[in-house]
Each structure stands twice: as C-alpha cells, then as structure tokens.
Amino acid sequence: MKQVILPRPFKSHKGNFGRVLTIGGNENYGGAILMSSSAAVHAGAGLVSCATDTKNLTALHSIVPEAMFINYQNDVELVNAVDAANVLVIGPGLGTDATALKILQKVISNTNTKQFIIVDGSAITLAAQEPALLEILATRKTIYTPHQMEWQRLSGIEISKQNNIKNALKQQELEATVVLKKYHTTIYHTDGSASQLEVGGPYMSTGGMGDTLTGIIAAFLGQFHFKNYEHVVDAAVYAHSALGQELAASKYVVLPTDIINHLQHFMSNYVQSTIQK
Ligand SMILES: NC(=O)C1=CN([C@@H]2O[C@H](COP(=O)(O)OP(=O)(O)OC[C@H]3O[C@@H](n4cnc5c(N)ncnc54)[C@H](O)[C@@H]3O)[C@@H](O)[C@H]2O)[C@@H](O)CC1
Ligand SMILES: Nc1ncnc2c1ncn2[C@@H]1O[C@H](COP(=O)(O)OP(=O)(O)O)[C@@H](O)[C@H]1O
Ligand SMILES: [Mg+2]
Q: Where along the chain is AMP bound (predicted)?
C-alpha cells in the first residue's frame, strides 16, 4: 500500500488539513454523527463542523468541543456550511423521513465538483430511491460506504448474489468509489480496479463502527493530498480496521470510541515506523 499518512509540514495551519462538514444525527441517532465528527477530529481534520438536529448541540460540544455546530434544519446555515467545506460526510444517523430527504437534497444540490462527498448509512438508503441525486453524485468525487444491506438497496443486488463482477458493474454505473463494508471489506475504484482489506474482524461488530469510519475517511481526504485520492480512501479504510485488529489483542470487543481514542497514537506510530525504515 502506498504511504499516505505523512509527517506534517512545519509551514501549515488548520486550513491545510481539511474543512470537514458532517451531516446527520436526528433526535434518535445523535451518536452516529457525533462519532463521525469525533473520528474526523481525532484523525487530524483541521476544522470540523457538524450539521445536525438542535437536540444534539450540547452533546456535541461536550464530547467534541473542537467541532462547530450547524442547525441542519436552517437552510441558510446549512448551505453556507456546504459552501465552506472541502469534504462532506452525509448520512450517519440522518434517518429516512421527509426531513432527512429534504436535507439530503439541499446538501447534494449545493455541492461542487471539487468537494469529496462521503455518502453513508441513511443517505445511501434514501439516495437509492432518488435517481436525480445519484445523477448529481456521479459528477462529484463521491465515496459510497454501504454495508451489504445498504449495497443491496443501492445496487439492487441481493446480499447472497453480491460478487466482485456484479458489484463492479453496478459501481461503474454509479461513477463513484464504493467501499463495500463486511468481513474483509472490498473497495471498488472508479478506474475499475478493486482492493480487498485483509485486516479487521468480528470484534468490530458494534453499532457506530461504520459511522466512525466516515470521519476517518473524511479527515484523511482533507489532509493527505494525492493525485489519486482513492489511495487515500484505501489508507483510511485500512487504518480503521488495522487499528481495530491491534486493539483486539487485549479487548474482546473494540468499540467505535476505542478506535477514536487511539487514532492519534496509531497515526503517530505509523509515521515514526515508516520514517525509521
Ligand atoms: N448510535 C447511533 O446513533 C447509531 C446510529 N446508526 C444509524 O442508524 C441508521 C440505520 O443504519 P443501520 O445499519 O443500523 O440499519 P439498516 O437497516 O440500514 O441495516 C441494518 C440491517 O442490515 C443487515 N445487514 C446485512 N448485512 C450487513 C452487514 N454486512 N453489515 C451491517 N448490517 C448488515 C442487518 O442484519 C440489519 O437487518 C444509519 O443512519 C446509521 O448511521 C447505526 O450506525 C447504529 C448506531
Ligand atoms: N465481522 C466483521 N469483520 C470485519 N469488520 C467488521 C465486522 N463487523 C463489522 N465490521 C466493520 O465495522 C463497520 C460496520 O459498519 P456499519 O455496519 O455501517 O456500522 P454502523 O452503521 O453501525 O456504524 C464496517 O467498517 C465493517 O467492515
Ligand atoms: Mg452504517
């Protein structure tokens, strides 16, 4: 794998490491967008804003005070936040009701071709029913992060019939990167290639683990600038599961918040060990 996590240049500031906007977290699923936002902060995003339900404001500020709050029901605030971001995560805990769909439409229709858009969870379930949204996303640097059931909804391929050939055909139609999450996740790239993860395991099967992954991908895309950004997506997916595997040496289950709390050490160790080589 290409080395993606790099030492930081001295002449730099928060603006160089990504302006990430996370969008999701209705009144029942606030935890999902908090984990995404917190993972983005801990994986090194320079600035993180979280567009969510007002009910999550206090929790956001207490769990991750580094992040800024946007009321996702306020159209002006939301559109300004979308404009200012260079990486967006939409979907963790967004829900699938009419409010969620309105927010998804507002966000996607205000994005531009320079931005990275990570589409996860509820946003995948909603977009699967909205061809007009899929069409816009096909013109963006979109990364879908479905688990197998979400991929069934988006691709129309039943879980038992999902295989590399069928998955890649559908992914090429979507004109986007697809991170198909499962035991040994497969990543389908826009050039037709695919990579297969060989780390991670069932100690990672706790709700919120995928929400956490979205924040790591966002932070990596915001701060590590490569011509082929899909190397960066691969590295983020690898880091998430490699860290899970490392922590599983002494934990029966690895929680999403364990991953978040160890990201800084993991990334530091990785950079130190590669400098010494
Ligand atoms: N603390 C929180 O606020 C949490 C919020 N969540 C949010 O809840 C919303 C619904 O997402 P869910 O994924 O729970 O619900 P979904 O209904 O989209 O998917 C879960 C269903 O898919 C099945 N399934 C089949 N293969 C699977 C695979 N490889 N991985 C996972 N599930 C598989 C499961 O058995 C289950 O029936 C999303 O917006 C998500 O972000 C979840 O992430 C859980 C934690
Ligand atoms: N048995 C497993 N082996 C390897 N990785 C797993 C396993 N179970 C879950 N994971 C990982 O945990 C994450 C779960 O994502 P997802 O189902 O979207 O969770 P959530 O929506 O609850 O946050 C994915 O990255 C997936 O690959
Ligand atoms: Mg999920």
A: 181-185, 210
